Design the sequence.
């Protein structure tokens, strides 16, 4: 097992980006089976077989899906917010944060936490879907520069570090 | 000859592909052709100013002071909705970054298998099942993504827009997921304003004519004639448009889907997004969650550009994918995305503009400004001498 899998080696994600080199990226696509609500597929990508346990990734994706469902839920609170905003000609949105934005902040915190606890120690990095237009859940695979490159470097690696 | 590499921090909107114009350092986002939008503004503001100047003094005294007050409130609401529709991001989907595009290409090639030489590869389509209905997702060659359901590519703005309705030249922007409800409220409130002004114009003329005679009235308030003309033509178009969109909302359809006949019922095709309940559909479209923009327009990014040392000012050296954001005020295009029912909302409103939800529209920036006040000019100079 490559040395960087010991979590003590990387103290934060910045270190991961600088010390490791990007091998490839895996993209988890949107699941449109329930309409246009934001949901990601829980299908496990084969490239991650050797890197992370299935259940961990599924848990992450399921939690993200539940956050998005909460943000896009059409119910009492969204009606109230919509009617109140309409009554003020939407000027209130200049000062107030919408429910969706609040949930997005929660999601961002959750992804950061997951990255630090689970993914960075395994040489992976999850990018917040909002940075990719909510189209895909991007998982970057890193390889420790020091090690001899035990996993095959895919030809599609652009060589540039993830943004 | 020596060239200098300068790294600057720029706002992301300066590097966005697509044919949009941005103002207020990325806060305002519109299409390139804004001429018709200015016409809309002029008609609304002009007609309302005439109303406030000619009719309101008489009506406030002889009928009720509530009349101009209500007109003013309605006018402010119309302007707020118009500006919100025009200035906000309609729901543009950002283009795929190179790695994502390559990943999708590989998936497509794997799905298509080996295509014999000389034969055209099959069209890039992905089928998904939504509510027991097969929906085809098309691949966008410009944005290099499979478009989500209900998204469409606007040829005028050169962007894929989520829940694309149509491109409206009158508001100078696309109408999509994020600004559809503002657009609808704009047409609705404009209809009300038109009816209101038209009605009170008639009332005013009748009341004055009783005292002074019809011709004298027209001489005293010449603005009335203009207002009545504008309102008359506006009524038919805007009220019709509002009715059409009310129908679409009750069925949870977009103009784009209606024009293409996607859910017309042929071949047992039903709209999978409709809740089959008018109230639920209306609530979802008008009172649903407010989706945030996924285009990070005001975020900062690094821009590396090569500047020739002989140049006096670095203003001509934007990086390769900077789109020149020139504004063309030519006549409106009617492209394939444009709805035929979109006629002129030609009501003019009062000159008094209250603070709108967004900042006032400054002159559109012609080129991405290199030195906007918040740009952090970090110069890491790497001299690159070529002899």
Sequence:
């Amino acid at each position: 097992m490559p040395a960087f899998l010991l979590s003590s080696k990387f103290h934060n994600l910045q270190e991961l980006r600088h010390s490791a080199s990007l091998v490839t990226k895996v993209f988890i696509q949107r699941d449109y089976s329930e309409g246009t609500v934001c949901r990601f597929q829980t299908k496990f990508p084969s490239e991650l077989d050797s890197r992370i346990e299935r259940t961990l990734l599924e848990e992450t994706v399921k939690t993200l899906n539940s956050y998005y469902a909460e943000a896009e839920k059409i119910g009492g609170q969204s009606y109230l917010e919509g009617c109140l905003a309409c009554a003020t000609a939407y000027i209130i949105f200049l000062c107030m944060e919408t429910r969706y934005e609040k949930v997005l902040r929660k999601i961002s915190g959750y992804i950061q936490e997951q990255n630090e606890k689970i993914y960075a120690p395994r040489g992976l990095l999850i990018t917040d879907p909002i940075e990719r237009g909510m189209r895909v859940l991007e998982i970057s695979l890193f390889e420790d520069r020091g090690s001899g490159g035990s996993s095959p470097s895919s030809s599609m690696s652009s060589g540039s570090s993830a943004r | 000859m020596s060239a200098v590499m300068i790294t600057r921090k720029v706002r992301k909107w300066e590097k966005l592909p697509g044919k949009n114009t941005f103002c207020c350092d990325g806060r305002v986002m519109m299409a390139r052709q804004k001429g018709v939008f200015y016409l809309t503004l002029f008609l609304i503001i002009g007609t309302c100013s005439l109303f406030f100047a000619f009719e309101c003094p008489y009506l406030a005294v002889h009928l009720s002071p509530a009349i101009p007050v209500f007109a003013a409130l309605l006018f402010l609401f119309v302007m707020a909705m118009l500006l919100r529709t025009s200035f906000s991001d309609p729901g543009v989907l950002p283009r795929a970054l190179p790695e994502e595009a390559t990943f999708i290409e590989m998936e497509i090639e794997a799905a298509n298998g080996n295509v014999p030489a000389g034969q055209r590869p099959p069209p890039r389509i992905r089928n998904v099942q939504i509510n027991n209905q097969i929906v085809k997702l098309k691949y966008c060659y410009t944005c290099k993504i499979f478009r989500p359901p209900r998204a469409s590519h606007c040829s005028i703005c050169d962007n894929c827009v989520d829940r694309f309705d149509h491109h409206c030249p009158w508001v100078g922007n696309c109408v999509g997921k994020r600004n559809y409800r503002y657009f609808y409220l704009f047409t609705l409130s404009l209809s009300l304003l038109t009816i209101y002004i038209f009605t009170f114009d008639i009332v005013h003329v009748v009341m004055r004519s009783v005292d002074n005679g019809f011709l004298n009235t027209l001489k005293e308030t010449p603005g009335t004639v203009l207002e009545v003309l504008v309102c008359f033509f506006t009524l038919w178009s805007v009220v019709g448009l509002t009715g059409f969109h009310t129908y679409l909302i009750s069925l949870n359809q977009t103009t784009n889907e209606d024009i293409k006949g996607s859910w017309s019922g042929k071949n047992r095709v039903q709209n999978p997004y409709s809740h089959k309940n008018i109230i639920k559909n209306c609530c979802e479209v008008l009172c649903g969650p407010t989706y945030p923009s996924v285009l990070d327009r005001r975020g900062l990014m690094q821009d590396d550009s090569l500047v020739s040392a002989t140049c006096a000012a670095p203003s001509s050296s934007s990086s390769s994918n900077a789109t020149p954001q020139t504004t063309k005020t030519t006549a409106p295009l009617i492209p394939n995305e444009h709805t035929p029912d979109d006629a002129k909302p030609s009501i003019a409103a009062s000159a008094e503009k209250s603070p709108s939800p967004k900042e006032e529209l400054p002159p559109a920036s012609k080129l991405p400004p290199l030195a906007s006040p918040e740009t952090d000019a970090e110069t890491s100079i790497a001299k690159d001498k070529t002899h």
Notes: Strands of chain A lie at 20-29, 124-127, 136-144. The radius of gyration of chain A is 19 Å.
